[in-house]
User: Fold this.
Amino acid sequence: MRGLSGSRVEREPVRLVNETVRISLGAVLAGWLARRLWRLLVLILRSPGLLAVLTLIAVVLIVWHRFGPVPLVAAAVLFIAGLVGWRLRWPGSFYRRVYCTWRSGWRSGLIYHWRWSQAMTGAGLAVRRRDTEYLPVLIRVRCTRPVDRVRVRMLPGQTLDDYATVADRLGQTFGTLDCRIRTVPHRVHEVELWLLVHDPLARVVQPFDPGHDPLHDGLPVARAEDGSTWRLQLLGTHVLAVGATGAGKGSVIWSILTALTPSIAAGLVSVWVVDPKGGMELALGRRLFDRFCYGDSHTDQASYETTFALLLEDAVTVMRQRQDRLRGVSRLHEPSTIEPLIVLVVDELAALTAWTIDREAKRRIGAALGLLLSQGRAAGVVVVGAVQDPRKEVLTVRDLFPTRIALRLSEADQVNLVLGPGARNRGALCDQIPDTLPGVGYVAVDGVAEPVRVRFSHITDQDIAQLSLEPVQAEVGQLEYLTGNELVA
Assistant:
């Protein structure tokens, strides 16, 4: 081939020499300064707080130059006096509009904007393409004393689970106790980081004032981790509380009963109680109950367990009678003194669903309980149950509870059984709740993506005794409760 072509092939690569362009030092410094000034201008325009501060400084300098310090001192004194008066007269409004705004401003600039690039890179949420690094956008920061709520716009292709997986890294980077990821309603491209700065649930929660209309406003039963009062919407739902021994299931039940006391006194709520523990847990409040079933140790085993089935079947009968009256009239029962909301409280559901010895009683209990959970909400018959073991073989009707409360659990796998798939990845670490925090748990409600961390109020025996001092009159004008196999008036 070499002789035919008469040419020589060079196998060494061609070397290209770029021409050197010389730029003066002054031009380099001018370009650097221009970039920095442009970034500062963008930061000022994007930060209303910083823009307001700069404007205030300019106004102060102008006034000082033209009129001297006297007007500025007088304005400062009036401003401080106004803040003090606001704080004393309207502390709630002052906290929301002044303290939270000030805290949001300085934590946004000094903590989150300052560490944002490091946090996103260290957590693996930054994306590099063609030598350009793209970061999720920090939209805004809203702070309260315990929680910082950081709104973030995700990069294309990212999901909420990407942030939930690295939530512990984000919390460590920003120096907070914990970090949970929450969705933003109607904003599919955004997520909200809930960073716990101070844990208000470390202290015992005292009972709440039920208010004027707790049934419709929601029962104030717990303190949320952002410091607000968490309210349980009992109308149209069933409630399941799951927790290991000593986790605080009694706090859940008694918090609900305490919040229901005004409605019970008004005749809008009728409480039916099944306490398979022989009445030891709930007997202190039996003056609040229209039906109280705890069995009788002097009877045989079959009769003991049959009493539970009888009460549940009576609730089914009431439910069907109401369905007949509501047919074509309304799809949801409205409590009244004529037809009050029936709240059926079962302290240990497993004693009815899994540990019942009498097969016939077990069959009747299972059938009645399934009917109540599948049809009772609309008819005004709601079930509040507590159990230790959430497995299907123990509690076959677990999925029929729209509202679920997971307190301290023994195993990590139980979290998803109670709260739903992915709940633990989103921060519901029920298996890590310490023994020293009874009543602390996570609440999952149908229609809400993320579980909420709360602590239920601590109700003492003295508090229960005070609730029981005034008898609550039943619909027929006398107090009734079921003990053993007979209805006692």
